[in-house]
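Reopening this ticket.

The earlier resolution said the output was attached, but the attachment link was broken on my side. Pasting everything inline this time so it's all in one place.
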Amino acid sequence: MPAAYSFTDSKALWAEAQQLIAGGSQGTRQPEAEEAPIYFERAKGCRMWDVDGNEFIDLLCSIGPILLGYAYDRVDDAVRAIMETSFQSSMNHPIQLELARILIDYVPCAERVRFLKTGTEATQAAVRLARQITGRAHVARHGYHGWADMFKRGCGIGTGVHHGSWDTVYEFDGTAAGFYDLLGPDCGGISVAVDGGRETGYRRFDAYCTYRRIGGYEVASGLSTGRHTVTVTVDSASFDKRAILFEHNRPDYDEHPDRYDGLWWYLGGILLNGHEVNR
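Inline output:
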């Protein structure tokens, strides 16, 4: 181990990468500190060596999948054996069944198996399956679920995400509708249109929002009896939260600005004078 770390070669490669690769990185990791390793040339077990010869222990296990360590001989030998006989075939291979049986045996709740290439692909498939089985559109989420549009934080100009990816549309048979949700420091706002009409904005942040609290409000009332459509768009436009807070609440914003960064909408439930129509 060197007495002092040097990242000269990593920095040179990173400078070149920004001219050749969109975003500079083909993976999920971009430099998060000025003095940190960026490029690694080899790994074995739990250890990695960067292009400058520095040695590190990888506590992330390559963000999850390298449970047995890098360059694990038993795994590598099995992969090489498959590559020599049938690598990337467009048809099925019996080894798929072998792995499926093992997974079903080891996972008590598993009835069938579906193999997917990435985490983003897996979470999209999970959402589609849940919506198909339940007939519902709303998805509760927390944390990182991939880079698909529906999981991207915010939408609109500057994000590359169309608002349709975040729109929540539901139909109901009745005369009035509302929401039961949270207000709080990381909340933003929504726009609601009923039956394709003009959008109305509802901000879920106010002068009291140094903490979270429950709110209930009406978005449509006095409608004619029958079926109606409600479209909700999460508003990605930022606004001056500090100016909205009461003056005596602003020190909390100054001391903990990160708490106020979000523009989230936390939906607890849909309020109806009527009933939702399953689609």
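Reporter confirms the inline version is readable. The first strand starts at residue 40 and ends at 44. The chain has a mean pLDDT of 88.
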